[in-house]
C-alpha cells in the first residue's frame, strides 16, 4: 500500500504539491509503547498510519492519564502537528499501543499545503471537528455514565480490537485509559468477578459473560 492510495485528498492536490509531499515524506517504524508526540512543544508532523494503533491522551498535574481517542490503520494523527494550531491550549501525548508503521508529513510541508490548498485546509478542519467530537463523547461518558458502565464498555472495546476474550491488560492500564485510580479499577473488576462477568488473573482480564457486560454498558 502506497501513501498516495491512503491519503484521502491526494487526487485534489496539484503536481507541485504532490511532489512536495514526495520529497519530504518520512517513513517511520515505532515499537509498541513508544511516545511519538509529547505535548505542544514537540511539533513532529502529521502522521498517517500505515498499520498499527495509536492512543492519544492527556495527563493531569497529579500524573493521572485519560485516553481521548485511538487511531487505527489509515487514520491520520493531526495533533502531532498541533503547533500549527494556535487554538490548541492543552498538551496531547501520542503513544503506540501496537507496533506501528507510519508515514510522516513534516510540519513545514503540511503548513505550506494548508496555506496553498483549500482542499487541504478543509480536510484539516474536518479532522479537527472529528477529533473534538470524540473528545465531547468522552466528556459525556465521564459526566453521565457511572464507572461500572465505562469499564464494561472499555473491556468490550478491547475484546473487539484484539478479537479475544482474554485481555492481556493490567488494572493500572485500564485506569490510565479511563482517567481514574488503579485501586478503583481493582475494586470494580473484583465486583465484576463476583458477579460472574469476568475472571481475573495476573496481568489478564478474561471476559466470561459478554452479554451481561453489553447489558451493563448500555444500561
Mean pLDDT, all residues: 93
Radius of gyration based on Cα positions: 19 Å
Low-confidence stretches: none
The chain-level structural class is alpha+beta
Element-level helix/strand string: HHEEEEEEHHHEHHEEH
**Ends apart, CA distance between termini:** 42 Å
Total strand segments: 9
Shape: elongated
Helix percent reads 40-55%
Helices, by number, come to: 8
How would a crystallographer describe the biggest sheet? 6 strands, antiparallel
Please report which band the strand proportion falls in: under 5%, 5-15%, 15-25%, 25-35%, 35-45% or over 45%: 25-35%
Summarize the structure.
This protein is of the alpha+beta class.
Q: What would you say this structure looks like, in words?
A:
The chain is an alpha+beta fold. 44% of the residues lie in helices and 26% in strands. The chain has helices spanning 3-6, 15-24, 107-116, 118-144, 147-162, 171-178, 182-194, 210-218, and strands at 26-30, 35-38, 45-59, 65-71, 76-77, 93-106, 166-167, 198-201, 204-207. The strands form two sheets. Strands 1, 2, 3, 4, 5 and 6 form a six-stranded antiparallel beta sheet that branches. It has a three-stranded antiparallel beta sheet with strand order 7-9-8. Helix 3 (107-116) packs across helix 4 (118-144) and helix 6 packs across helix 7 (182-194). It is elongated.
